[in-house]
Amino acid sequence: MTIDKIIGDIAVRIEVELEGSKNKILGSGVLWGPDDATSKYNYVFTAAHVIYKNKDSKLIIRYFDKEGEEKTEQSDSISIHCQYDDDVRPYIYDVAIIRIKKINTKYQNFLMKKVDQIEGKPNIIARGFPKMMHNSKNFRFSGKDVCARYSQPEKRMRQFQYNISNSENVNLAERNEELVGLSGMGVFLKDEQKITLIGIHSYGVGDDSPFNTVVGMGSELIIDICTNEGWDIPQYILDIQVNLSEYIKYLAVDIENDEFGDIMDDISEEDVLESIRHGFCGISANCKNREAPHRCNPFNVHLLFCLCILRLLNDNVCFKTPEIEKEGQNYPVKFICSGGINVEGINAVRVTMKDFILSLKIDYLKKNIVKDKSLIIWYSDINTKGRQLECSREEFKNIVPDIKKDIRKMDGFNIKSGPSQSNDLSIIHVNQIKKYIESNDNLESVKESILKVI
Known about the structure:
By secondary structure, this protein is of the alpha+beta class. The protein folds into two domains: about 5-230, Thrombin, subunit H (Beta Barrel), CATH 2.40.10.120; about 245-450, no CATH class. The protein is built from 13 helices and 20 strands. It has helices spanning about 5-10, 50, 175-180, 220-230, 250-255, 260-270, 275, 295-315, 355-365, 395-400, 405-410, 430-440, 445-450; strands spanning about 10-15, 25-30, 40-45, 60-65, 70-75, 75-80, 95-100, 110, 125-130, 145-155, 160-165, 185-190, 195-205, 215-220, 280-285, 325, 330-340, 375-380, 390, 425-430. The strands form three sheets. It has a seven-stranded antiparallel β-sheet. Strands 9-10-11-14-13-12 form a six-stranded antiparallel beta barrel. Strands 15, 16, 17, 18, 19 and 20 form a six-stranded mixed β-sheet that branches. The longest helix has 17 residues, at about 295-315.
């Protein structure tokens, strides 16, 4: 399936009901939904100016279902970026999200790239519904693919410019007129192997979009809204080029176990980058290599270690969404690197379990969805303080009340996002697992020790 076919199935038109007449067309949007089967919602990403004047109305999303049939769904909730001001021109922070009840569509989830992750001037593609092409008989014929080339970022405002291809047959005398209705469409990288959203189309530059130059709002603004609302959060694609076999020699120094060595050799030969891109591993404050953790040797060494442990715990583990089984129940697993954070908000000289949990609460759990009953495998290149290198779910729940004052002091209180964070987590430090391996020749005993933490 080509990218133009895929975005054709997730491009939507946004309308508003008018009493006694046909719906008014407001603009375009792109449909997204998480892989999580428990989620009750889908989301439409669009431009704030498209819906601002109708933000208190019930909006209509016109979309294609799984069979390719035209369907409509009403808005459940609407959120506009908190820094958007409809009186400011040119538009800034021009992003909004419309939440709708979960619908049955072909494609829902896709990854995103930040403005500062984009290199060079890649080809990009978008699909929207210009008003000049409105076809009341055929919704699909009302849409238009727009091919373009990325031009330059404006990182401070999280925007980017791109140039619509001259082959798009946009009327050079009336460019903006032909662009009406395209506002809000999702802008994707065209030549990526995976469908990757970089932002939302906002407006044409100048009175006649000189040189076919238009402006998009960066995908980071979408994350802002989802985080503030406590909604499902899309994932960024990571720029990863890692050969895990290079790190075997570092682990071999610490772990002298033939069975573990065999697992390590097998893992290093597998292509695990796909799983890494899907958010199995990550970082939380404070991390020295926050912007590029996969260029950090200690991170990669312990990523390899963590993958080996997963294979030990579950021989058929899927690294994309890893789980381990205990007494007939599956438990998701995450690998998180963090130096922890103390109440002053600076790196601790020695890190404790409380420091790490505080870091999770004010950083990682605000930006990432972690399911209840997950096991977090933790690594820190800062020495740990105290004996607590593992934390059961019950212990986690007992620690959280102790740090509530610190959370409010450092991060304030968000009544929307706060309750969405899981408090039903267990944690084990990499060093604790290494201790189990050192004291047990039989890896089955190591497996039993780890499972006790859950």
